[in-house]
């Protein structure tokens, strides 16, 4: 599960015009990042809801707890950059999961493509804003070296690691179930839960 952002864009380039109809054209103003992330995440939630009317009763016995790392939200509250890095990691990992989908009869392929386009747009926006903050990050490191408390310095690495482990559990579940209909229905519900959770991240960026 290590698809690179540039590879993602190459795969999605033929569908870019469709993406413009979904999210509209937004200027890459980092002051509006929270608005863009909330909009795209909400659209993806709606698209996931549209792929299935209800959870199949026959799949209830196969449900599993994937342990979405809830503590990330409290860890990342002090530094907005960490929130963006967590959003970036989630976008890549979610895209990789959706790239494995093959059961066209279960999820509408058009909806899936739109979700992938939205995730790719998030990645582009986040890349720009993270690059713009690079100097700010260096300045912050210098301040911590002058004696400030820097106990949160490892939070980005820990958050990314926790998210990767979470998505690895999802990926392993799909493989164990051989990408069955029920496995995808369970993952669809789980990633909806993940997207709802990340809506809270976007709200924190506005503060």
List key phrases describing it:
single chain, 207 residues, mainly alpha, Growth Hormone, Chain: A, 69% helix, 0% strand
Protein described:
The structure is a single chain. With 207 residues, this protein is an all-alpha fold. The chain has helices spanning 5-12, 16-23, 33-50, 71-76, 80-99, 109-132, 134-145, 155-176, 181-205. It starts with a helix and ends with a helix. This is Interferon kappa. Belongs to the alpha/beta interferon family.
Shape: globular
The rounded distance between the terminal residues' Cα atoms is: 33 Å
Order of helices and strands: HHHHHHHHH
Strand content range: under 5%
Number of helices: 9
Overall structural class, as computed from helix and strand content, comes to mainly alpha
Largest sheet: none
How do the strands and helices of this protein lay out in sequence?
Elements: H1 5-12, H2 16-23, H3 33-50, H4 71-76, H5 80-99, H6 109-132, H7 134-145, H8 155-176, H9 181-205
Helix pairs in contact: 1-6, 3-6, 3-9, 5-6, 5-8, 5-9
Quick structural gist:
The chain has helices at residues 5-12, 16-23, 33-50, 71-76, 80-99, 109-132, 134-145, 155-176, 181-205.
């Amino acid at each position: 599960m290590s698809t690179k952002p540039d590879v993602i864009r190459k795969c999605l380039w033929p569908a870019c015009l469709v993406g413009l109809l979904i999210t509209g054209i937004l200027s890459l103003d980092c002051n509006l990042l929270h608005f863009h992330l909330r909009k795209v995440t909400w659209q993806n939630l709606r698209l996931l809801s549209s792929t299935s009317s209800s959870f199949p009763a026959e799949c209830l016995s196969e449900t599993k707890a994937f342990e979405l790392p809830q503590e990330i939200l409290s860890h990342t509250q002090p530094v907005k950059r960490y929130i963006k890095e967590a959003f970036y990691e989630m976008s890549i990992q979610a895209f990789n999961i959706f790239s494995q989908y093959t059961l066209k009869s279960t999820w509408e392929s058009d909806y899936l493509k739109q979700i992938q386009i939205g995730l790719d747009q998030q990645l582009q926006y986040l890349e720009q804003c993270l690059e713009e903050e690079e100097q700010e990050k260096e300045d912050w490191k210098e301040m911590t070296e002058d004696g400030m408390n820097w106990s949160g310095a490892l939070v980005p690495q820990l958050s990314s690691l926790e998210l990767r482990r979470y998505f690895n559990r999802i990926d392993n579940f799909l493989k164990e179930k051989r990408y069955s209909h029920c496995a995808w229905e369970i993952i669809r519900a789980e990633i909806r839960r993940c997207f709802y959770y990340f809506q809270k991240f976007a709200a924190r960026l506005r503060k």
